[in-house]
Automatic annotation (TrEMBL):
Catalytic activity: O-phospho-L-threonyl-[protein] + H2O = L-threonyl-[protein] + phosphate; O-phospho-L-seryl-[protein] + H2O = L-seryl-[protein] + phosphate
Species annotation: Thermothielavioides terrestris
Broadest EC class assigned to this enzyme: hydrolase
SMART domains given in the database record: PP2Cc
Descriptive protein name: Protein phosphatase
Length: 402
């Protein structure tokens, strides 16, 4: 992500808002936008025997590729295993241990000690910091590492509130950790954070122009809107050194005070068979929501997870054959897991669109809308990162009294 640098905040190295590159996305078709109110739609499910209960299971995979690098779906892939032991974070990962996602970063983590609950997010580093000799990836990757560690160690209720950790609080804690990290003296990123709860609830906090989409039964059910101050100027979090603040005060410049409290929060009730996509603007600048829906529908139908019937699209009753990860990283039938297939298909399509000079994508259409005399055709090359979730309800044994 490319951007220009502005402004400041306070403590210990001035955390503040920063201009960066944005693409307002032209959706142009009928969709339901998420709101702070829960979507109270209820899935039609077959009742199970009294000795079992249904639990939500979140099957997660991520795919990514840095700008200008060759994309290999078998290499640029992460599959989340909730049973892997999480080591306490002593410091953010070094550059050598990061995925090849460029200035984009992501995390997927267990959410505290509650079985099955998941926290995830995507952060997109501000490329404009490179003009000051700063690697934007240092901020975004450390930010995600800190959020992952905070989520994994989250107590059942937060001190002071008596309530569980929220998506906005997780963003705040990750941001505070970056601000107090002496190895990160400057930088910034956008952020989108999601919490997936055991009862099938999703909470999202979005700041900037990364975003998410919720797909259900061959349709777009909800999506996030980019938060921008103007074209190419999305909200973001930043750490600004005092010297840069002094120069801004001397020579002038706008001051954008974006903080985690400015993130838009939405909540959604999930259903069996839903697909979630969280991604950086490298994806949304190159694929419309219709494009993502088309890829997901084709992949889900091809696997047998979604099927057309006389009464409409239906979800397979049991998604475990498609989503459960075997020892070799594949599903039970020897094919890639459904979540990994979705992630790689989506990122692969976005990567292809980004280097296509003929087919105008969302970013090109926005340029034409704001600057009619500007010549911009095709896609927009950028780092691309997507985290995909396949939601399933599975039978779990219930303890009964003899």
């Amino acid at each position: 992500m490319v951007g220009t640098l502005l402004a400041a905040w306070n403590n210990p190295r001035l955390c503040y808002g920063r201009d960066l590159e944005c693409a307002n996305r032209n959706f142009g078709f009928n969709q339901q936008h998420g709101s702070d109110d829960l979507d109270h739609s209820v899935a039609a499910r077959t009742p199970f025997a009294i000795a079992t209960a249904e639990r939500f299971v979140y099957n997660v995979a991520a795919s990514y590729i840095a700008k200008g690098r060759g994309y290999d779906p078998s290499v640029h892939l992460f599959q989340f295993n909730p049973y892997n032991r999480v080591q306490p974070l002593k410091a953010p990962r070094g550059k050598h241990a990061r995925p090849e996602s460029g200035q984009d970063a992501f995390f997927v983590s267990r959410l505290g000690a509650v079985p099955g609950e998941v926290a995830l997010g995507v952060a997109d580093g501000v490329g404009g910091w490179m003009d000051s000799g700063i690697d934007p990836a240092d901020f975004s990757h450390a930010f995600c590492d800190y959020m992952a560690a905070t989520a994994a160690a989250a107590p059942a209720v937060m001190r002071g509130t008596g309530q569980p950790l929220t998506a906005r609080q997780l963003m705040q804690k990750g941001y505070e950790a970056v601000c107090h990290d002496p190895t990160i003296w400057a930088g910034g990123s956008t952020a989108i954070v999601g919490l997936l709860k055991a009862e099938g609830l999703l909470e999202v906090a979005n700041l900037g122009d990364s975003g998410f989409i919720l797909l259900r039964l061959n349709g777009v059910h909800a999506f996030s809107e980019p938060q921008t101050h103007a074209f190419n100027t999305p909200y973001q979090l930043s750490v600004v050194p005092p010297s840069m603040l002094l120069r801004a005060a001397t020579f002038g410049g706008a001051r954008l005070m974006d903080q985690p409290r400015d993130a838009e929060v939405t909540r959604h009730r999930l259903r069996h068979g839903d697909v979630l996509v969280f991604a950086s603007d490298g994806l949304w600048d190159n694929l419309f929501n219709q494009d993502v829906l088309r890829i997901v529908s084709r992949t889900m139908a091809g696997a047998g997870a979604w099927a057309g019937t006389e009464s409409g699209v239906q979800v397979a009753p049991d998604l475990r054959p498609y989503t459960r990860i075997g020892e070799n990283g594949l599903a039970a039938d020897g094919r890639p897991t459904l979540q990994s297939a979705l992630a790689t298909q989506i990122v692969g399509a976005a990567r292809a669109a980004s280097v296509n000079t003929k087919l105008d994508g969302p970013f090109a259409k926005e340029v034409k809308r704001y600057y009619p005399d500007e010549v911009w055709h095709g896609g927009k090359e950028d780092d691309i990162c997507a985290v995909v979730v396949v939601v399933s309800e599975e039978e779990a044994p219930v303890k009964t009294n003899p």
